[in-house]
Specification:
- It comes from Desulfonema limicola.
- The protein is of the alpha+beta class and 141 residues long.
- Helices cover 30% and strands 21% of the residues.
- The protein contains five helices and five strands.
- A hairpin with a 2-residue loop joins strand 2 and strand 3.
- The longest helix is centred in the first third of the chain and has 16 residues.
- The protein is globular.
- The N and C termini lie far apart (52 Å).
């Protein structure tokens, strides 16, 4: 029975997150900029930005002051570093749901969202996730 359960869980995960004919590779457009505040328990954890086709993340001073009460985010171990990447880190990427889901497809079509644009997808779907308690709020740019 356990083997069936694990296979079943894997097939659900695979169907939601694997690359299929409905999924596309996403990218961050070079000409778009945005800034997000990541919070937990009403404390600003850090700032996620995109600019010129690159993502950056940096912890905020208010989070550094409370580090004894909270854990650092997996993949972001240095409180002083400005992290940079041309692709969205898994911690943030998990906030974008599988594009094969019928409800997500409907939202993308109805709101005319470019499903290849990583920034558009994060803006629309990234505020909350069931995988962690953090909230991602877009700032006015």
């Amino acid at each position: 029975m356990l083997e069936f359960t694990n296979k079943f869980k894997f097939s659900i995960f695979k169907s939601l997150f694997s690359k299929g004919e409905e999924d596309v590779e996403s990218y961050l457009p070079n000409n778009e900029t945005a800034s997000f505040v990541l919070t937990v328990d009403n404390i600003e954890v850090g700032i996620l930005k995109c600019h010129s086709g690159e993502w950056s993340f940096k912890y905020s001073p208010s989070f550094k002051d409370k580090i004894s009460e909270y854990r650092k985010i997996i993949g972001f171990s240095d409180l002083e570093k400005v992290y940079q990447s041309n692709s969205l880190w898994p911690f943030f990427r998990t906030r974008i749901p599988g594009l094969k889901q019928p409800a997500i497809k409907e939202i993308i079509e109805r709101e005319n969202i470019n499903k290849e644009n990583e920034l558009e997808l994060l803006k629309r779907f990234g505020k909350k996730t069931i995988t962690n308690p953090y909230i991602l709020i877009i700032q006015d740019t």
